[in-house]
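in:
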């Protein structure tokens, strides 16, 4: 069993790596729809619509065009980013997820003596392809 670390994760936009990734998160959720009927003594639920979101922290390099582009993307009126890939382990084929995303947050964290980091959050638009 191989233990994965943040150093093996990668975030790509249009198949180009976006800087170095310190950490990455992928969350897949499904709503629970209440289908309780009159006369039921306990609540009942069915599966609802699936949603997928993620976040990560990029290590900022002012010389890296891809990192600068992803940071500036949230400042314009673009609705989504096509072809975003989250790779949990750049050395394996499993653990790769691809889809269109909407950036929901981009920030910058700067502190003395530390690497400048860029936390980002995104939500996938539609179905995500990939596998664990």
């Amino acid at each position: 069993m191989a233990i994965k670390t943040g150093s093996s994760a990668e975030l790509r936009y249009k198949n180009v790596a976006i800087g170095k990734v310190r950490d990455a998160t992928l969350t897949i959720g499904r709503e629970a729809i209440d289908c309780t009927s009159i006369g039921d003594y306990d609540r009942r639920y069915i599966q609802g619509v699936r949603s997928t979101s993620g976040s990560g922290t990029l290590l900022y390099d002012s010389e890296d065009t891809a990192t600068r582009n992803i940071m500036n993307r949230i400042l314009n009126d673009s609705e989504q980013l096509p072809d975003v890939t989250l790779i949990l382990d750049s050395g394996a084929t499993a653990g790769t997820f691809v889809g269109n995303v909407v950036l929901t947050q981009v920030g910058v964290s700067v502190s003395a003596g530390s690497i400048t980091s860029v936390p980002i959050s995104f939500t996938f638009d539609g179905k995500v392809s990939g596998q664990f």
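note: The chain has one helix and seven strands.
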